[in-house]
Amino acid sequence: MESSTILPLSHFSFLSQKPHGTSIGSFPLNQWNPTSQKTRLNCQKMYVPGFGEASPEAKAAKNLHNLFTYVAVRVVNAQLESYNTEAHKELTEFMEKHSLNDGDKFCAALMRESSRHKTLAMRILEVRSAYCKKDFEWENLERLAKKMADESNTRLMRDYVLETSHVETEK
Amino acid sequence: MESSTILPLSHFSFLSQKPHGTSIGSFPLNQWNPTSQKTRLNCQKMYVPGFGEASPEAKAAKNLHNLFTYVAVRVVNAQLESYNTEAHKELTEFMEKHSLNDGDKFCAALMRESSRHKTLAMRILEVRSAYCKKDFEWENLERLAKKMADESNTRLMRDYVLETSHVETEK
């Protein structure tokens, strides 16, 4: 395993670079940092380049934000289907014309479509906030992602071994 | 991308802000969701359509998995830059030709490029697993996403109000 050989290197690079999760502008590292006590106590993290002034956590939060908007739109539209078919039709048509890749852009456009659409947009904003804060299973996300890291690595290595040993058998 | 300079402020606003959008009105609240033990014990969640047999958490975990691969590739490449310029060049060239959108596909291709590339791939697998399990700040992700939900909703509504009141002023 190479982890022991690469982590110390990253430790040194960390000292010369701003840590990604804790670089709070020009705040010195010994100031109180509400975001991560762990980081302050044990600065052993890898230096992550390629995120500018943001962090992988901020990037992931932005992706989740768009996912929550997608979820909220689907939740609201499914609810409308049962008791307001006209609004359901209007929202469905709007969804066909507007991408949900950028959730905020979608909501901004929906608010400006008509007063009826605006009501739907307000509801979607409310649902995505409630979903993010109450329904979304954060612990489950962490568990699933860690499991996926193990399982994907095992699968990739197994597939490679099977493939190469098959080639060798054929020779 | 949010600047990290706002992080200290967010702590206080996070504590003082009451979450809005907590009234979930007429939503169906008793749908059973097989993904979580919590859900089984406390079935107060919204029904989320559109994810087939998966869940929003599984979808989010898959996205994070790809993000972790991206992070690992950047971490390894930045480390190589300082002590193995040949490998750094090879990995950079490979990155230019292969998309990192699907992390597993990228790693599978890297493993099959050459024996040197295979060594790099094994290291990337190891780093992404370590990053996911040790470095990534899960609590920070949750905090940032919840903050983004509040701030985005406020911004969308404020922009709309400013825009419409501007129109009315012009009349």
Q: Key features?
A:
171 residues, homodimer, mainly alpha, 73% helix, disordered N terminus, 7 helices
The low-pLDDT segments of chain A are 1-41
Biggest protein-protein contact in the assembly:
A-B, 87 and 93 residues
Continuous helix count of chain A: 7
**Number of E-type strands of chain A:** 0
Q: Whole-number average pLDDT of chain A?
A: 78
Q: What letter string, H or E per element, gives the SSE order of chain A?
A: HHHHHHH
Query: Roughly how many Å is the radius of gyration of chain A?
Result: 23 Å
How far apart are the first and last residues' alpha carbons of chain A, in Å?
30 Å
Task: Outline the secondary-structure elements.
The structure is a homodimer.
Chain A: H1 3-16, H2 37-41, H3 56-83, H4 85-97, H5 103-113, H6 115-135, H7 138-170
Helix pairs in contact in A: 3-4, 3-6, 5-6
Short recap of the structure:
The structure is a homodimer of 171-residue chains. Chain A has 171 residues and is an all-alpha fold.
Description:
Two copies of one chain form a homodimer. Chain A is an all-alpha fold and 171 residues long. Chain A is 73% helix and 0% strand. Chain A has seven helices and no strands. Chain A is elongated, with a radius of gyration of 23 Å. The two termini of chain A are 30 Å apart. Mean pLDDT of chain A is 78; it is low at 1-41. Chains A and B meet through helix 1, helix 3, helix 5, helix 6 and helix 7 of A and helix 1, helix 3, helix 5, helix 6 and helix 7 of B.
